[in-house]
């Protein structure tokens, strides 16, 4: 059998799975997969029948998955991975959405303890939850990255003009942040905690395009280097992104390592302010 069976009432299929697979299919052309292009073909995009054939399932079975009425089993997931040539992050995302037993209740986080931890760090540090809501930050972080009243890091990045001015690779980082947020959301069955953030996020045209039409998903790196613009020139900051095992993927702590020297207009280097 290709569908998972559970005792009692069957758990509903996550609608995000079908929506995402449909978007992935439509983003791939037959030429990309080396398939022959028929002269009277209406669209260069893959059809459900073609994906089903490549995945080794019946067209009806694959259609049910895209329509959200059928949950794929292990064999079908493997076939879809091969058919659409999914990368490891996309495979993880697809498997998460096909798992009906993901948590829906978020654990309560010890905010006071987290705040004490950050206060003991000299480097800029911030803790945030699965919706990127800021739980606590230390004085160094607040001085290094003024948030102008924003309480959500993702929304600040897209909706605050300071973020666009501060990050030299703003568009590339924006693409990466949405891909990471899409993966985070897949860890939970209940999408309601994310609804407010997504609705606010979609008020930015570029974010709306990435969220509504993008298919990329990304795991969160353990560290990432950002290129920033400062009063003293440009600098790079490496951020360690920590996720405690017992609360992952709910709690995240980001710590900014000491910055690298900034480059002055005359080519000499100095400490960025």
Features:
about 270 residues; alpha+beta; Beta-Lactamase; 2 domains; five-stranded antiparallel β-sheet; two-stranded antiparallel ribbon; about 15% strand; disordered N terminus; disordered C terminus
Can you give a write-up of this model?
The chain is of the alpha+beta class. It folds into two domains: 83 residues, lambda repressor-like DNA-binding domains (434 Repressor (Amino-terminal Domain)), CATH 1.10.260; 160 residues, Beta-Lactamase, CATH 3.30.450. It is 42% helix and 13% strand. It has twelve helices and seven strands. It has a five-stranded antiparallel β-sheet. A hairpin with a 2-residue loop joins strand 3 and strand 4. Helix 2 packs across helix 3 and helix 2 packs across helix 4. It is globular. The N and C termini lie far apart (61 Å). The relative contact order is 0.11. The N terminus and C terminus are likely disordered.
């Amino acid at each position: 059998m290709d569908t998972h069976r559970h005792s009692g009432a069957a758990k509903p299929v996550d609608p995000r799975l079908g929506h995402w697979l449909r978007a992935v299919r439509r983003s791939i052309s037959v030429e990309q997969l080396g398939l022959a292009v028929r002269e009277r073909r209406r669209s260069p995009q893959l059809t459900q029948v073609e994906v089903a054939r490549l995945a080794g399932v019946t067209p009806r079975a694959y259609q049910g998955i895209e329509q959200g009425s059928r949950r794929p089993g292990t064999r079908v997931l493997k076939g879809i991975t091969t058919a659409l040539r999914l990368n490891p992050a996309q495979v993880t995302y697809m498997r998460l959405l096909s798992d009906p037993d993901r948590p829906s209740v978020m654990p309560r986080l010890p905010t006071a303890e987290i705040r004490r931890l950050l206060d003991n760090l000299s480097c800029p540090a911030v803790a945030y939850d699965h919706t990127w809501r800021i739980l606590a930050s230390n004085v160094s972080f607040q001085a290094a990255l003024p948030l102008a009243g924003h309480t959500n890091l993702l929304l600040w990045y897209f909706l605050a003009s300071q973020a666009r001015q501060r990050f030299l690779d703003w568009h590339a980082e924006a693409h990466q942040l949405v891909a990471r947020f899409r993966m985070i959301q897949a860890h939970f069955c209940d999408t309601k905690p994310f609804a407010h953030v997504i609705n606010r996020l979609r008020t930015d045209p570029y974010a709306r395009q990435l969220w509504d039409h993008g298919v990329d998903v990304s795991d969160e790196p353990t560290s990432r280097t950002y290129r920033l613009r400062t009063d003293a020139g440009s600098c790079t900051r490496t951020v360690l992104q920590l996720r405690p095992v017992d609360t992952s993927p709910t709690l995240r702590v980001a710590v900014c390592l000491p910055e690298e020297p900034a480059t002055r207009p005359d080519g000499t280097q100095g400490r960025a302010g």
